[in-house]
Write a structure and sequence with these properties.
Layout: H1 2-5, E1 10-13, H2 18-25, E2 32-33, H3 49-61, E3 71-82, E4 85-87, H4 93-103, E5 107-117, E6 122-133, H5 138-147, H6 162-167, E7 168-172, H7 175-178, H8 183-196
């Protein structure tokens, strides 16, 4: 059904994330990938979902002069919110280890914001999932950080990776949101957005 509404549209995903590309592909709708580097800084007075909302919108703004009337642009950003602090991608392996030590034996929130943009419309929405880790041993954290790729993931982990399989004891909300793309909400919002375009 969504494919029918988008048949006259050109869907653009502005993300290098293979997980986001894979999840969007699962909707069986055609899209292209366009990439631009941006400096992902945000005002320090922002907190929680306001951070990811801001960054998702920021990522869309760099494309504003390139959009054609039939284009629908999708940008997104994911943060991990723990102890009133936003965790983005780790700066180093040491930083990744420290992040996972902090998340061990505790519950945090994963927040993904998505921006849908055309030349004359824009909406921003987000999804929040609570994730609980067991007590992770130093050996488990070191193994994960040095044998997998936590450097491109908010909070230094992928729930679909080994650390998620052995370490996550509880999840409240969308699993795919923790992967960085709340595909259920994206489907619903794209359907609504395409009908109104």
């Amino acid at each position: 059904m969504l494919k029918d509404y988008l048949k006259d549209k050109n869907l653009i995903l502005a993300s290098a994330s293979p997980r986001r590309q894979e999840l969007l592909k699962s909707l069986e709708i055609p899209f292209e990938v366009r990439l631009k580097h941006i400096d992902e800084h945000y005002p320090k007075n922002l907190s929680h979902s306001a951070i990811s909302d801001y960054l998702a919108k920021l990522k869309s703004n760099v494309f504003v002069d390139e959009l054609d009337p039939q284009d629908i642009l999708i940008t997104s950003d994911t943060i991990v919110w723990h102890n009133n602090t936003a965790l983005g991608k780790p700066r180093s392996k040491e930083n990744a280890v420290q992040m996972l030590l902090n998340l061990s034996d505790d519950t945090h929130e994963v927040i993904t914001s998505v921006c849908l943009k055309t030349i004359d419309r824009e909406i921003v929405f987000h999804s929040t999932t609570k994730v609980t880790f067991k007590t992770l041993s130093q050996e488990e954290i070191d193994f994960y950080v040095h044998h997998f790729n936590p450097m491109d993931k908010a909070g230094a982990y992928g729930i679909q990776d080994w650390i998620g399989q052995i370490g996550v004891t509880k999840i409240e909300g969308s699993y795919y949101n923790v992967m960085g793309f709340p595909i259920d909400k994206i489907y619903t919002q794209l359907l609504k957005f395409s009908k109104e375009c």
